[in-house]
Design brief:
5 strands, 2 helices
């Protein structure tokens, strides 16, 4: 039986304001590549928060190699 390769996931930046989340989902693909560099939400000016793309749990640091909540490895 062969082992599955480890799944690598991304750190996501999100705005905690639900109204902004709707706008973020409508970003065109060519703009999405720049959102990883955003520090503040372009719609409400609140600071963006990091979360795991698998379990959606909040993270306090970009330095984690693995999600402390679900154990998946982050892409670098």
């Amino acid at each position: 039986m062969s082992e599955k390769p480890p799944v690598k996931v991304k750190l996501e930046k999100i705005c905690l304001d639900n109204e902004c989340a709707e706008f973020w989902n409508k970003f065109p693909p060519e703009l999405i590549k720049f959102t990883a560099e955003f520090i503040y939400c372009p719609y409400c000016a609140e600071e963006l928060h990091l979360q795991c793309s698998v379990c959606k749990e909040s993270l306090s640091s970009r330095d984690f190699k693995f999600c402390p909540w679900c154990g998946t490895e982050f892409e670098r």
